[in-house]
Amino acid sequence: MENLKKTILFSSLFSLMVMACGSSGQSEAVPEPPPGKQTGDVTIYTTTAARTQQFKKSFVDFGSGANMSPRTIRLNEQQRYQTMDGFGSAITGSTAYNLLKMTQADRTKFLQETFSVTDGMGQSYIRIAIGCSDFSLSEYTLNDQEGIANFALQEEETKYVIPILKEILAINPNIKILGSPWTAPKWMKVADLTNLAPYDSWTGGHLNPKFYQDYATYFVKWIQAMQAAGIAIHAVTPQNEPLNAGNSASMFMYWNEQRDFVRDALGPKLQQAGLRTKIYAFDHNYNYDNMSSQDDYPVKIYEDAKAASYFAGAAYHNYGGDKAELLDIHGKAPEKELIFTETSIGTWNTGQNLGRRLLEDMKEVALGTVNNWSRAVIVWNLMLDSERGPNREGGCQTCFGAVDINMSDYKTITKNSHYFVIGHLSSVVKPGAVRIGTEGFTEQGVVLSAFKNPDNSYAVVLANEQTKNTRITFTDGSKYFSYDIPAQSVVSYTWK
């Protein structure tokens, strides 16, 4: 996380329009589905910026006869893009703490709604910290006593994060988990790579090259310890936000350091341990925090063939720069994967105002990254409390969660834009789906992505920015249906 979350305001005329119309509830109403219609050829989920529908499930049937509508969007399976890995959020120490404050019945209900592939959104990807993050209950690593033999999981893992992960895996055993460290143990850090002076601080510093092998072992021990606890680790990044030394906790890791660490230590150590955990480079902002020497960070790493062989691809955040960077990196390294691993809402971007955030986040974070070759979309904290915590000095104290739970009862939940944009993807786009092309009708203010799922079902996720309803017909080439898309809404469709 960026310290104080570098303020990003997508302050556009569209945003102001959504505030005026979406949050005021004056957008056009759409008739509810006929009473009693509980099935249909096409399953639809709808969320409006005005909250008149919040992930509302409905159904329509395929049309009969010939489709003559000029407002038809055709799916084109011949045009194939990336394979999708999944969509989800971060289970931080703070999130796990809040979830465990709920009653078992309430927590199970919420987790079912969020992660069940049959009865909920089917969220399919989780990010966790390796050691502490800025949303942990304290600052710590898994090896604070010098010597790699002293590695051990700590209370935050054993008491909070692992129990919650086990409950989630019981609901969705196929969920992918990505791990990222915020800092190496302090005894492994130096102030700079020239003098190599010891650096006794959670914040900033660099990894001492003489500890590359020990730190790689630290990753191996963590993956194995999580496996022993029943938690399979799908992927890791070597460092969260490697260009941000101001966060609590944090550590610099410039591209040449990450190249050397993975090439000479982490990659070989994972292989020697028989671990197939993926490694993603970078894990930071589109604009490389305006450090020109760090531009194209992952591409610079890939220029070393041995280092490149250990990286599946690169991960990005959006606290600076533009999503077009994903297209640029894909163009320079099309053989490597891209995933989007962190974004937050907060007081700086009116994070709890669904009227303002829903469509902007769908366009910029969800559909925006997917349409720019990202295989995954992961937002920050799944759940924070009504005081934006538990949080810690030096970390983000102005962030909201994908959902926020009221501290007065640990029961009342406010669902924010990030919860809905992830749910609209995960509910209809399954891991292993392929993004496919569309052709035909287009309309200003309508943004969408289309997919073919592994079970041969189709999925479309669409955002309608317009202040009026719009009727569109969709066809896969053999079947078609029409739907009145509400003003200022996000809609997901799936059919076979």
Number of strands: 24
> How do the strands of the widest beta sheet line up side by side?
2-1-24-21-20-19-3-22-23
Shape assignment: globular
Rg is: 22 Å
**Main sheet makeup:** 9 strands, mixed
Mean pLDDT: 93
What is the percentage of strand-forming residues?
Answer: 15-25%
Runs in which pLDDT lies below 50 for 5 or more consecutive residues are 2-34
Give the helix level as a range of percent: 25-40%
Structural class by SSE content: alpha/beta
Structure description:
The protein has 496 residues and is of the alpha/beta class. It contains eleven helices and 24 strands. It has a nine-stranded mixed sheet, with helices on one face. Strands 12-11-10-9-6-5-4-14 form an eight-stranded parallel sheet. A three-stranded mixed sheet has the order 15-17-18. Helix 6 links the parallel strand 9 and strand 10. Helix 1 crosses helix 10, helix 2 crosses helix 4 and helix 10 packs parallel to helix 11. The longest helix is centred in the middle third of the chain and has 18 residues. It is globular and about 75 Å long. The protein starts with 12 loop residues before the first helix and ends with a strand. The N terminus is likely disordered.
